[in-house]
Amino acid sequence: MKELTQKTQVTLLEAMIDGSKVGTIVTDPSQKDNPIIYTNKTFIDMTGYTQQEVIGRNCRFLQGPDTAKEDIGKMKKAIANEEKIMLTLLNYRKDGSPFWNRLAIEPVRIEDKLYFIGTQTDITLERAQQQAIMANESEIEKLMLPILSVQENVATVALVGTMNFQRFETLKVKICEYVQEHRIEHAIIDITGLSWNEKSPLYWFTQIYDALRIMGSKLYVTGISPAAAQQFANDLERDSRLTTFSTIEKALNFITLQSGGKNISVD
Ligand SMILES: Cc1cc2nc3c(=O)[nH]c(=O)nc-3n(C[C@H](O)[C@H](O)[C@H](O)COP(=O)(O)O)c2cc1C
């Protein structure tokens, strides 16, 4: 196999580092205030500074009013001890806009000379998405009264407020987890206090129904208002898998009688 020349190797390596999604810098602690001696293109694009503006400076110029002092202290200590450190801190671009920087700093010795390599990833979007999910989950918690085991093998959950696609998705996961953990055979969802944005939530209930059926459990929907019943009736004609009752009590009676093996008529 033909060996690559050193020049080609360096050029290839540089192209790889510049093409990476991760910002990379190298600092020289033998110089006053540990300045940056190298940055890749990604670091330049991420921060908005030019190469000339950053070479020769300590990287703290990325910090601003809301950068946590504790994070700065941790970095100072790790660098002084020549230790590796990873953290996510708030930094600022040249135009003053903040971004969340997932940063790793690592000491490297080359021919007995110490350098530090820093890699930076802008995770602002990721963090915002994570926060949106968390906010949505706590919203669900508020909308969903706790899942209760009312009898052995039977659990109920009452839904209040407005449900939408995402909330139904979370509800499905939570019910499935609960049913599996508590070996529930019959799950009742009461929708007396529920309103919804989508045309009809029946689709979502049948999704939950299917998920539970795979686990060997049954789903019943109760608390259907006359208006909702009207809407449900049309859908149920097309899809009659769901068993519905006007009240939780009626569903419980049905389950008890069914467990006893008797035939009853559903209201
Ligand atoms: C290789 C390397 C990369 C660094 N990258 C960043 C960075 O991206 N953002 C930041 O706020 N600080 C970064 N720092 C930390 C600062 O340069 C500085 O060490 C830190 O603010 C603690 O020192 P000080 O208290 O003297 O400011 C980096 C440090 C090193 C050695």
What does this structure look like?
- The chain is of the alpha/beta class.
- The protein has two domains: 6-122, Beta-Lactamase; 134-259, Transcription Regulator spoIIAA (2-Layer Sandwich), CATH 3.30.750.24.
- It contains nine helices and ten strands.
- The strands form two sheets. It has a five-stranded antiparallel β-sheet with strand order 2-1-5-4-3, sandwiched between helices. The chain has a five-stranded mixed β-sheet with strand order 6-7-8-9-10, sandwiched between helices.
- The longest helix is centred in the middle third of the chain and has 20 residues, at 124-143.
Outline of the structure:
With 267 residues, the chain is of the alpha/beta class. The chain has two domains: 6-122, 2-Layer Sandwich (Beta-Lactamase), CATH 3.30.450; 134-259, Transcription Regulator spoIIAA, CATH 3.30.750.
What percent of residues adopt helix (DSSP H or I)? 40-55%
User: Which residues form runs of ≥5 with pLDDT under 50?
Assistant: 261-267
Distance between the termini: 81 Å
Task: Tell me the number of helical segments per DSSP (H or I, 4 or more residues long).
Answer: 9
Task: Determine the CATH topology of the largest domain.
Answer: Transcription Regulator spoIIAA
- Main β-sheet, spatial strand arrangement: 2-1-5-4-3
**Biggest pleated sheet:** 5 strands, antiparallel
- Give the CATH H-level superfamily of the largest domain: STAS domain
Give the overall shape, derived from the CA principal axes: elongated
> What is the average per-residue confidence, as pLDDT, rounded to a whole number?
86
Percent strand equals 25-35%
Report the top-level CATH class of the largest domain. Alpha Beta
Small-molecule binders here are: flavin mononucleotide
Number of domains: 2
Keywords: Chromophore, Flavoprotein, FMN
Domain STAS: 144-255
Protein name: PAS domain S-box-containing protein
Domain PAS: 9-82
